[in-house]
Amino acid sequence: MDRVAATLEAVARWGARDAAGWSTGLSAEGARAAQSAAVEAILDAEGVLGVPGGVPPRRLVIWCAGNVFTAALEWTALFASLGTEVVLKASVRCPAPVAAMAEDFAALGARAHVLPHAAAFHLLDGADAVLGFGSDEAMAALQSRLSPLQRRSLHGHRVSFAVVDGASESLDAVAAGLAMDAALYDGRGCMSPAAVFCLGDTGALVDALAPAMADAARALPRGEVDPAIGPRWRTRCGLARVTGRCLEGDGWAVAAMPAAHAEAGPLPRMLTVHPLRSLDELAPLTALPLSSCATNLTDREPLIALGFERACRPGQLQRPRFGRPHDGVDVLTTLSRQIDRG
Question: Could you tell me where the beta strands, DSSP code E, fall in the chain?
């Protein structure tokens, strides 16, 4: 069996496991949905696995964060298909998915270690490339431990938003997509929408979002919620009731308020909608470490000019294309040696 076929089998094995038992903090339905989305993106892609972007690393360390349990799957698959030995540093907060990944990719040379951040730096010994995910502080500490010869692609905090036309004839579909963007992973990770900016009829969008959020909550119930979220949730809802509108249900909320109150941190299963008169009002976003933007606008170039590294349809924020650049970085090329044989 060639490495591409073996990789696809490993991805399928990981996808056949029950993510509900992995202590991800998500509900059983939410964990399974996130697992399925990550697996399907790889199994449905053609011509990505086994295609080098240079000379791939001999040994790659993937430094995993604990908030998005599927994050390492696509990169493990991509590099394993090229013959790279993948060493996974699992988060102690959620080690089971990564440990299972190493088991399923063992025949391709993958292995996992469950270690606290500060106790795992020895895993870097002998690695010629490092792919890291985590907080800015964690990535800075990791950067300080790397030698100049070790190629790296380190990804800290990022934030995503949605920018939509509220006058769209397909507003119900837009709302359903945004509700699923908010539901997958319960607002965790850099691809969860922190806010929705709406051109046109904000009221119509809010009215469409409420039933869509309720439907998403029934299909994928919200998982564990940090007790510290409670005061932030109540404050946000209270502000919305004073300055705009707040529609709230069992484990979800849609808050509408002026853009002056926009925040860069999502709350689990809350979508905050801010009205826009023009895209020029989004200029303050350029100061943020932007990730992705969900939009139904035909012309996405103004959003790219703001600094978004990815623009997609509502409903696709949490379903990135397999083989895409990550945070604007071509990870495969960055971590591979580029040889000039001319």
Answer: 59-63, 85-90, 111-114, 129-133, 151-155, 159-165, 193-199, 245-249, 252-256, 270-276, 290-295, 310-312
Q: Give the pair of three-digit tokens for residue 1.
A: 């069996």
- 103 lies in the same domain as 221: no
Given pLDDT bands bounded at 50, 70 and 90, which one contains residue 1? low
In the sheet with 151-155, reading across from the earlier edge strand, the strands are: 111-114, 85-90, 59-63, 129-133, 151-155
pLDDT tens digit sequence for 282-295: 999 999 999 999 99
List, for residues 162-194, the tens digit of each pLDDT value. 999 988 879 999 999 999 999 999 999 899 999
The number of domains in the chain is: 2
Residues 76 and 123 in one domain: yes
The CATH number of residue 221's host domain is 3.40.309.10
- Is 318 part of any domain? no
C-alpha distance from residue 321 to each of 19, 29, 44, 100, 325 (Å):
21, 22, 10, 23, 9
pTM of the model: 0.94
Per-residue pLDDT, averaged over 35-40, amounts to 97
Strands 245-249 and 159-165: unpaired
Calpha distance 21→13 (Å, rounded): 15
Q: Which amino acid does the sequence have at 78?
A: L
Is residue 190 in some structural domain?
yes
261: exposed, middle or buried (C-beta count within 10 Å: 0-12, 13-18, 19+)?
Answer: middle
Range of the domain at 213: 159-312
Does residue 115 lie in a domain region? yes
